[in-house]
Fold this sequence. Notes:
Blueprint: H1 2-33, E1 43-49, H2 56-64, E2 73-80, H3 86-96, E3 100-105, H4 114-123, E4 130-133, H5 144-149, E5 156-160, E6 163-166, H6 173-195, E7 207-210, H7 228-237, E8 243-246, E9 254-257, H8 262-278, H9 285-304, H10 311-335, H11 345-365, E10 368-371, E11 374-380, E12 385-391
Parallel strand pairs: 1-2, 1-4, 2-3, 5-8, 6-9
Antiparallel strand pairs: 4-7, 5-7, 10-11, 11-12
Amino acid sequence: MILILSYVLGSLTFLYLLISIILIIGTSRLKKKIIKSTTLPFVSIIVPAKNEENTIGDCLDSLLNQQYPYDNYEIIVVNDRSSDKTPAIIKFYQEQHKIIKSLDIESNVSGLTGKQNAINEGLKLCKGEIIFNIDADCIAPSALVKQTVSYFSQKIGLTIGFHIPYSKDGLKPIFADLQALDMLFLMDAAAGSIGVNVHVGCAGSNLAYRKTILADNGYNDIGFTVTEDTALIQSIAKKSDWDVTVVYDKDTVVMTPAETKLKKFLAQRIRWTSGGLATKSWVLIPLYSMFLYHLCMVVSILLAFFIESLAVIVIVSFLAKLMIDFIRCWRVCKEFQRLDLLSVFVLYEYFMMFYSIISGFCSLFIRKIQWKDDTYRIFNNANNTKVSSDKKD
C-alpha cells in the first residue's frame, strides 16, 4: 500500500512539474506572438449590476476617467433586478454623463444566468466594434481601454485581462493577499494554456472581444452556464477565424474587492469548478490531475507522520512543488510589480491545496449553486450537462 501511494505521489508530482513547465513555456510563447495595433475603434463597456450600491459609483468613476477619446466609447450599465439603491445611482451618473446608457431588467425569462442575460441585453444597445465586460464591483485603471484595444491586431477576437483582489471594508490584509496571489497564479496558468493552444478558461471581470464573434444571438448560442467567461473563450477556440490573447500589462489590471469570508471564497471557487466541469471538455483533464495531486499530497503528508518510510517521497514531492510554484509566482508577480505578495507564498501553498480539495470534492456532488441571490441547478442527462435556474426562496 505504501509503495503504491509513493508511486502515485511521485507520478503526480512529475506530471505537476511537467504541466507547470509547459505553462511557463506557454506564457513565453504568448508574449512573443503579441502584435500591437494603433487603431482606436469605437468601444462599448458593459457593466452588469445587481445590488451593487456600495461599489457601482467607484466603478463608473474609473470608467469615466479613461485615457481614451471621450467621444469614442460608451458605457452600458445594466441594472439586473436590483433591490437596493443601484438603479438610483446609475440614473444619477447617466444624467451627468452623456456616454452612459442604462437598461433596467425586471425579470429574467431568457433561460440564461442573470449575468449572461444582463450582458445579452446590454449587447443590444452597444454600438462598439470592441466590447468590454467588467463587473460592477471593479475599479478600472485609466489605461484599461487604451492599452487593451492595442492588443486587437487583425486576427485577435478576444483578450483576457488580469484582475487582482484587494483588501476592503476591514478585511485582514493577509486573506486579501492570499486571494491576490491566487488570482495572479490562476490567470497566469490560463495564459500559459492559451500559449499552447489549450483554452481552459478565464475571468470575466476584465474581458474584451469583438462584437462580431457573438453574432446576433449572443450568449443564447453558447448556452446557460454559471461560468460564462469560460464558455465564451471555449466557444471562440472552436472558431478558426479568431485568436485569443492575454493582456500582460500592469496598467490594465482591474482591482476587485477580495471576498471577506472564507465561506464566500469557497462558494466562488466551487461555482467556478462546477461550471468548468459542466463543459465536459478534455482540456479540463490537467485540472482533474491537479485535484488528485493535491489530495494525494495532503493524504501523504498526514500519513508521513506515522509511516517513516513515506516521509522521504513526501518531502521531495513537496519541495519540488514549492520550487516550481515559486518560480511561477515570482514570474507573474514581477510582471505586474506585486513581488510583495511573495511574503505569503508558503502559506499560499497550503491555502491552495486546502481550497482546491474542498472545491474539487464539492463540485462533484453539488447540484445547486447560489449566485447573486439566484439559485442555479446543475443536473446531468445521458448526453450532456444542463443547467437551469430557480428563483431564490
